Amino acid sequence: MASPSTQAPAGAARGGDAPVSIVCIGMAGSGKTTFMQRLVSHLYTHPDPTSSTPAVSKTPAAPPYILNLDPAVHHVPFQPNIDIRDSVNYKEVMKQFNLGPNGGILTSLNLFATKIDQVIGLLEKRTAPPEPTPVPEQSTADFMAGKSTPPPAQKPAVKHILVDTPGQIEVFVWSASGEILLSSLASTFPTVIAYIIDTPRTTSTSTFMSNMLYACSILYKTKLPMILVFNKTDAQDATFAKEWMTDFEAFQAALNSEENNPETLGGGSGYMSSLLNSMSLVLDEFYKHLSVVGVSAMTGDGMDEFFTSVEGKKQEFLRDYKPELERRQAERQADKAAHREKELGRLMKDMKVSSTTKPLSKKSSSKAGKEELETVSDAEDMDEASDDDELARENYANYDSDEEIGDAEDEEDGGLETRYQQALKENQGPSGDDFSFARYMHKANLG
Ligand SMILES: Nc1nc2c(ncn2[C@@H]2O[C@H](COP(=O)(O)OP(=O)(O)OP(=O)(O)O)[C@@H](O)[C@H]2O)c(=O)[nH]1
Questions:
Q1: Which domains, from first to last, does the chain contain?
Q2: Which of 119, 177, 257, 258 has the fewest other C-beta atoms within 10 Å?
Q3: Mode of pairing for the β-strands spanning 290-294 and 160-164
Q4: Tens digit of pLDDT for each residue in 13-39?
């Protein structure tokens, strides 16, 4: 398997022309799914959200490419192109490994993360600029009549990849699989985090501050550009939040008024008030890195503003984040190479063999390369099968055969998937305590 970091960053290499991936993260009930639905319908009805052309235009809409990463969701009101539920059965995972809901989501994400190469391969293929369609030959009758043959309609290129995530933010943001999924996405496409906030539930200074701290932790964990999306503005206007983020005195005034109001539960007196005060000062620097928009996923209000922010953050990603990402990847690669070199040196010393490393490394790298090609072509074969239907789901279940998984992951240091497969195999069958998650994770070497 080619690790995401070694892949040619096809999408990102396209620069400003590359599709932007928008990852929707937010607390349970903040309105992520409704917001995703609104994004989809907006993109279908507004051909170019960043242009000033009116919604009704002759330009065909550029449909988004949609990923659902929430394994536990019952119903999604849009048609995802890639759905984690097609490859992982969350309920079965919970049952088999005796897990609770969060453990089930985490394990499902871990299992899905093992297929990240196929996912990225498909995304790259699906979002590649459409090939120019050859102009059909003009018929003699048309030629005689002086009519010109109209060029065939061109499929519009995908400009947005939309990603829905589980409501259990920490399970996604703080897990190894969440990191793998996000970093693979970000190393291939400009990626932006949309942090969805339930505005009506954020009106008190303390809940507002809690939400900001959460957003701050996500920003520092993911190291990706972030847009704060104050949702449900039809129920509560978000002007207060924007004001608190730009004017320290406005936040201070709100704190004072909450302190003097005996009915306010959110605000605080004494140490709470001074803590909130200092935090608002500390977070001042953090606020400067964010875009803030107020939207209503229900009515569609604020969507144009949101897409303008996405475009701004995409440029920021390409300008500031991408070089940093590439620097970190190069650093990791160098560390890995140095580690391998050291291990090889130790091995050679043990074997008392000198300077025979060349044929060995050549063989193993050509083997890895061959298998990488097999995996990618497998992905493309499967993809071609569903070429007719633009919004057809990519059926990841096709990848589930043991044979393909084994093929894809025969890495010299053992891939995630190999370890997972191994752990899954060893844990199969009714063995009572052996099903414990700790043991499973230990065997998978991820605990
Ligand atoms: N008034 C109003 N309600 C909204 C809006 N967006 C979402 N809701 C409501 O908020 C509730 C939660 O919305 P969801 O989209 O399911 O939220 P979610 O974040 O996906 O929830 P989880 O899947 O549990 O994480 C639903 O009752 C929605 O109808 C909005 O813009 N305005």
A1: 10-126+155-323 (3.40.50.300), 331-443 (no CATH)
A2: 257
A3: unpaired
A4: 556 678 999 999 999 899 999 999 999
